[in-house]
Design goal:
326 residues; D-Maltodextrin-Binding Protein, domain 2
Length: 326
């Protein structure tokens, strides 16, 4: 074999290897929710961080969807790589309950990272008689519109020991009537489940002297302890103009989900971008201000077991004491 032929062959091999090393991985798709919701901008940031975690021109696509149920259906069918899902809906999918009743369980569902909570929020008059949870006894509390109760509020009442029978009544009332009713004294409290900051809560805080009730206590601990899809959360009131301090609450979390079939490298890459640049995520949207490495790794309120690669990554990078989520 001639020297020229040998050099040509060696060059071809080097070029082939270089091309292999530079090849981008298969593109991924993250299902989110409606464009006007919190999940859509979260998906956009996750895509940006995933693409920036390497120099291989990886592609990530954000998919606007109808929300958690749609995401889980499409994730199961292989249309999505990841999906932002509410943890209680994820738990329903795993066990074929709730909106998935009558269907097949989804035991292959796996969580990757936890984000903000859909927190039970109880609004009261700051200058009224309700200062703590026990003061709700004998008082009228507004929940959702007719046919739209607040299940988290019901579950919280069950953990109090005195329950809803001790209230002055649970009023199903359209949201657009509730703030005026609270300010005028027709009701003593409003129960709403929402991420924060929230437009309805902001409107209430500016309408009259309104405060958020602190739900700390055995009832909160009991609900979180008996519902693995719920997690305790701290609501930072400074996200609202003129407010300070914080109150404790609980609720399902927005969780990044995938399936056990997804290769470890893709999970690790996404977490690398997320954990190393979590401060960028916090600055991207007011709802993300409470997201930090500890929140991402927290094992409570996930709705499904953690993907093995996510557990290993979070453990190796010491972002939580027990990130398994089991």
């Amino acid at each position: 074999m001639s020297r020229r032929h040998t050099l040509t062959s060696a060059t071809a091999i080097c070029l082939a290897l270089a091309g292999t090393a530079m090849a981008a991985p298969a593109p991924i798709t993250i299902g989110t929710g409606p464009i006007a919701g919190f999940a859509y901008p979260l998906g956009g940031e996750l895509c940006r961080l995933f693409e920036g975690a390497g120099n291989d021109k990886a592609r990530c696509v954000v998919a606007s969807t109808d929300g958690s149920v749609d995401n889980l259906t499409r994730l199961r069918e292989g249309e999505l790589t990841f999906a932002v899902v509410q943890s209680d809906v994820a738990a329903d999918a795993v066990g074929a309950t709730g909106p998935f009743a009558g269907g097949k369980p989804f035991p292959e569902l796996r969580s990757v990272a936890g984000f903000y909570s859909q927190a039970l929020t109880v609004l009261v008059r700051a200058d009224g008689t309700v200062k703590q949870v026990d003061d709700l006894k004998g008082q009228r509390v507004a929940v959702g519109a007719p046919g739209q109760p607040e299940p988290l509020f019901t579950e919280y009442l069950e953990g109090l020991g005195w329950g809803k029978a001790a209230l002055g009544g649970i009023v199903e009332m359209p949201r657009n009537e509730q703030i005026a009713a609270l300010c005028s004294g027709k009701i003593a409290a409003i129960a709403v489940t929402a991420p924060h900051p929230n437009g309805f809560v902001r409107e209430a805080l500016t309408a009259c002297k309104v405060a958020l009730l602190d739900l700390t206590g055995p009832a909160l601990d009991a609900v979180v302890g008996s519902h693995p899809a719920y997690g305790a959360t701290r609501l930072d009131l400074s996200v609202y103009d003129g407010q300070t301090g914080a109150v404790q609450s609980f609720g399902p979390r927005a969780v990044l989900m995938t399936t056990v079939k997804l290769e470890d490298a893709t999970v690790e890459r996404l977490l690398t971008g997320l954990v190393h640049h979590v401060d960028d995520l916090r600055k991207a949207h007011p709802a993300f201000v409470g997201i930090d490495a500890a929140a991402i790794a927290a094992p409570t309120g996930l709705g499904a077991d953690r993907h093995p690669a996510a557990t290993k990554y979070l453990t190796d990078n010491k972002t939580g004491d027990d990130p398994s989520g089991k």
